[in-house]
């Protein structure tokens, strides 16, 4: 296979929109972590002072000694509930600002709901533990159920995590021109990113077809290549020909057709070149 690459030099005064990727340097915001630490310190002090006051009241009013244990438990539960709710709000803000804002709205909304369920479930379990409720059966049942559910949704979870990693790292963005090569589907998929959802990414191919690709493919069995760079677009095109067709003849014919089309659109003429050689039946342009 002989590979022929097409490198189109696009002048700045054309009506073609190019997507540029600005380099941004993100600095980690430590304020949420400081707030969480400060909250934990305050809660510990409040719990300590409440216990001291309660013991003092018990000393001066012995009749309330019977209710001391229940009072300690009630104070602990109230502190855990208030502090846990405040810490969850801080974590929600941190995750939203650092991760969810970089995702599509539908994906971010689904992840936010899932995280809220996890956070508040943990808070409820901590409160139940403070109330001295036996959680052994709940934890064992939850562990077994978690394993069963984890095995059942392994592929879905893989797609979700892959989608989060790919989008949060800005590996792909909407309207990116990409080329995806994998042994799973054979021929390369060349097109434009139309939509990035929680499980799938939609790619509109050069033929106008919309293909849904599992997000796990971007981090698994796929060679992913962005076709755009500054003022240029690398566009491969695969063409099957007989083995006895000279590569130079095909290259000259392709150059003539492409130059004619580009001239009509008043776009700078492209540069065509070979990028590799394998077998003799397939040409990529």
From TrEMBL:
It comes from Saccharolobus islandicus (strain L.S.2.15 / Lassen #1) (Sulfolobus islandicus). Belongs to the MscS (TC 1.A.23) family. The lineage of its organism: Archaea, Thermoproteota, Thermoprotei, Sulfolobales, Sulfolobaceae. This is MscS Mechanosensitive ion channel. The chain crosses the membrane at residues 33-51, 71-92, 113-131, 143-166. GO terms for molecular function: mechanosensitive monoatomic ion channel activity. PANTHER family: SMALL-CONDUCTANCE MECHANOSENSITIVE CHANNEL. GO terms for cellular component: membrane. It is found in: Membrane. Residues 156-223 form the Mechanosensitive ion channel MscS domain. It is a multi-pass membrane protein. InterPro entries: LSM_dom_sf, MscS_archaea/bacteria_type, MscS_beta-dom_sf, MscS_channel_2nd, MscS_channel_TM-2.
């Amino acid at each position: 296979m002989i590979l022929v690459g097409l490198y189109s030099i696009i002048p700045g005064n054309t009506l073609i929109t190019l997507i540029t990727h600005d380099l941004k340097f993100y600095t980690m915001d430590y304020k949420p972590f400081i707030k969480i630490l400060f909250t934990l310190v305050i809660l510990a002090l409040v719990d300590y002072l409440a216990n001291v006051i309660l013991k003092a009241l018990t000393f001066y009013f012995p009749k309330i000694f019977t209710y001391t244990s229940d009072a300690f438990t009630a104070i602990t539960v109230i502190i855990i509930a208030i502090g846990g709710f405040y810490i969850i709000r801080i974590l929600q803000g941190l995750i939203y600002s650092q991760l969810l804002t970089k995702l599509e709205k539908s994906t971010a909304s689904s992840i936010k709901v899932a995280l809220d369920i996890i956070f508040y479930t943990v808070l409820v379990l901590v409160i139940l533990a403070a109330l001295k409720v036996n959680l052994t059966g709940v934890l064992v049942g939850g562990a077994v159920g978690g394993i069963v559910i984890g095995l059942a949704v392994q592929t879905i979870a893989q797609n979700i995590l892959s989608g989060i990693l790919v989008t949060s790292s800005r590996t792909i963005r909407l309207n990116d021109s990409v080329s995806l090569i994998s042994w799973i589907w054979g021929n390369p998929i060349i097109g434009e990113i139309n939509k990035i959802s929680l499980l799938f990414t939609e790619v509109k191919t050069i033929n106008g077809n919309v293909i849904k690709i599992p997000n796990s493919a971007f981090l698994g069995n796929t060679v992913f290549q962005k076709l755009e760079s500054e003022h240029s677009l690398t566009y491969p095109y695969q063409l099957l020909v007989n083995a006895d067709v000279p590569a130079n003849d095909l290259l000259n014919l392709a150059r003539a057709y492409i130059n004619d089309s580009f001239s009509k659109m008043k776009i700078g003429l492209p540069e065509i070149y070979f990028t590799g050689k394998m077998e003799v039946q397939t040409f990529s342009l």
